[in-house]
Each structure stands twice: as structure tokens, then as C-alpha cells.
Design a protein that fits this description.
The protein is of the alpha+beta class. The chain has helices spanning 4-24, 155-160, 181-189, 205-219, 242-254, and strands spanning 65-68, 71-74, 83-90, 112-114, 122-128, 134-141, 151-153, 169-175, 195-202, 223-228, 231-239, 261-264. It folds into two domains: 24-178, RlpA-like domain (Barwin-like endoglucanases); 184-264, Sporulation related repeat (Alpha-Beta Plaits), CATH 3.30.70.
Amino acid sequence: MLNSKTITLWVMLAIALILSACSSQPDSRYHIRDDVAPTDAPDVSIVEDAHPKYEPYSRGGNRKNYTVLGKEYQVLDTGKGYTKTGVASWYGAKFHGHLTSNGETYDMYSMSAAHKTLPLPSYVKVTNLSNNKTVIVRVNDRGPFHDNRIIDLSYAAAHRLDMLKTGTANVQLEVIYIESPESIALAKLKDTNLHYVQVVASSDRSRIHTLATQLATQYQVSTRIQQTGNLYKLQLGPIGRQPIAAQLSETLQQNGYPQSYLITE
């Protein structure tokens, strides 16, 4: 009769074998030959592109390293600046309603996709290089695990790119990266640029000088006049904070100077 220690060892061994198989075997859902298109699909031509916005990267969907078919993949820390050209495929009905690597439910009628190394979720603009059709997808899954493919698209995205019949297409990927609110706020605090608001340009030097004095008093800000040939450009500033300069430009536009715009040096 087995004692409790022996039973525990057998259970631990079984769990280890299962985990090993999960980490090393490919997920068959990524083999397009095993997949099918929906038999009664709605009109996906009206499905909107994914709407890029800031989302924190998923904890569960971004293991630093993972192995499939004996090949190790390293997930990127960020998708910022990522571009790539290669072959796209698509996956559909077989996986509709099942969980993605991000822990969400795969909806083949949404603008989504799978990628091997981009952090989840990421937003990607995909261009079919054969017809220049484009879509914006939200990457929330892993795959495709074929050396010659760089992205797996949802049924809806593949339809929009006109690649359902061919199954694959040569595409260009461009990540649409949205900074976190904290990063944006920090960048503004570290802003060392000088900002000016150009209000008006005129060949009438006297008028520009008079207007400079008037606006300096009205808005409590310094002014400068930049001369280019016979043209005099009136600018308010310098202003150390871009949001303040942008607000001043907007105020001037509303107060009778519609040509006002921001200059950064």
C-alpha cells in the first residue's frame, strides 16, 4: 500500500510532466490549416478599427521568456518604435470564444491579433502590401508559431485586408504606442525647451511694435520681434511650460488672432 509521501511524489511528478508539455508543445490553434472560417458570419466590413489608447501591459500575458516547439521567445519590454515587414496569417472559428494568452476571450469578429513578442496588449497598424489596405488591431494573443509568419489576424481584420481567400499576405506592421499619463506628466515637468506663440506677421514695423507693447501688458508675458527680410514677426515668450504656451495660443486665437501658433526652440 502506498504511503502518503509516495503519493505526494507521484502527484508532483505528474504536475511537472504536464507543465513541461505545456511549455514545450505548440498550440495547435495557430495552425491555419486546422482552422475554418465562420459559416454564417455577420458583415464584418463595418467593424471599426481598434481604438488605440493607453493600457498597462498585462501581468499574465507577458512572461519574459517562453518556449514553443523548442524555440525560445523573448517578449519585448515595450512596443514603442516597433515596425516589421513579413507574412500575416489569420485564425477564426476554431478558437472563437476561447481564452487568448492575455486572458481575454477571442472574438474573431473584433479587430484583434496574435504576435510572438509584442507586449500584450499592443495596438498595431497592419498594411497589406499587395493592395495598401490597412487596419488597426489590438494584439492580445501569442502566435503564429511559424518562422515565416509575423502576425495572426482575426477573421474581421483579415476580411478588411482582403486576405481571406489567400490565407496569408505580405504586410507591414507599425506599433501605435501610447505613453502612460504618468510618463506624459513627467516629460512635461522635465521640459527644458523654450516655447513662443507667434501672433502675427507684418511688414508694418511700427504696428508690430505697438501691438507687442499692448499684448505684453494684456497677457503679462514677454515679447520678441523676429525680422525676416521686410517681414516682422511678433512672438510672445519665452514660456518654459508647453501646456501654458499652448493655452496662451488658444486664447489668442479666440481673442482675435486666429493665425497664432506655437513655436518650440
